[in-house]
Amino acid sequence: MVTGEKPKADLVSKKVRERIENATYFLGIFTRRDRLKGRREWTTSAWVIDEKAYALANRKKLILLREAGVQSIGGIQGDYEYIEFTRDRLDDLFIKLVPILRNLATPTGPQT
User: Fold this and answer.
1) In terms of C-beta distances under 8 Å and separation of at least 24 residues, what long-range contacts does 41-45 make, across chains too?
2) 65 lies in some domain
3) Domain range for residue 98?
4) What is the mean pLDDT of the chain?
5) Which of 38, 39, 60, 71 has a 20 to 30 A CA-CA distance from 5?
6) Into how many domains does the chain fold?
């Protein structure tokens, strides 16, 4: 992501936390990382799982995208709703995602 910010010597985790704190919504994209031995499932990035937990703790609205085959997207908050996608059908993902983003962009905010 290009932010126009000048690089500075700081902790990446601090920058990530600050951006989450200043955001209204959190979009987590859980992609395949390492295949689990002897299984047809994959791990995902521990960073994204931690970021999701931090966003949830900071009462952010979550939009979660989970690639098919990813085993888990996080313990106690792992039952949060998500949109599943496959890399070969990203068009299907966008068809599902656009109405959600439109809803969030309405002046009255998200409908519950």
Assistant:
1) 41/69, 41/70, 41/71, 42/67, 42/69, 42/70, 42/71, 43/70, 43/71, 44/70, 44/71, 44/72, 44/73
2) yes
3) 15-105
4) 87
5) 60
6) 1
For the entire predicted model, the pTM comes to 0.80
What span, in angstroms and rounded, lies between the C-alpha atoms of 23 and 73?
Answer: 21
- Sign of the torsion formed by the C-alpha atoms of 104, 100, 45 and 75: positive
Residue 110 in this model has a pLDDT that exceeds 90: no
Euclidean distance between CA atoms 74 and 95, whole angstroms: 25
Does a structural domain hold residue 111?
no
**Which tens digit of pLDDT belongs to each residue from 56-101?**
999 999 999 999 999 888 777 667 789 999 999 999 999 999 998 8
